Amino acid sequence: MRYLNVLLLILFIPIYANAQFVIEGHVRNEKGESLSFTTVFLEETSLAASTDDKGNFNISNVPAGTYKLKATFIGYQAYTETIIVASDLNLDIVLKGEIYLLDRIEIQGNRVGDAGPFTKQDLNKKELQKENLGQDVPVILQWTPSMVVTSDAGAGIGYTGLRLRGSDQTRINVTINGVPLNDAESQNVFWVDLPDMVSSVNNIQIQRGVGTSTNGAGAFGGTVSINTADVRVNPYIDLATSLGSFNTKKIGVNLGTGLINNRYCLDARYSLIKSDGYVDRATSELSSYFFSASR
Question: How many domains is the chain partitioned into structurally?
Answer without folding.
Answer: 3
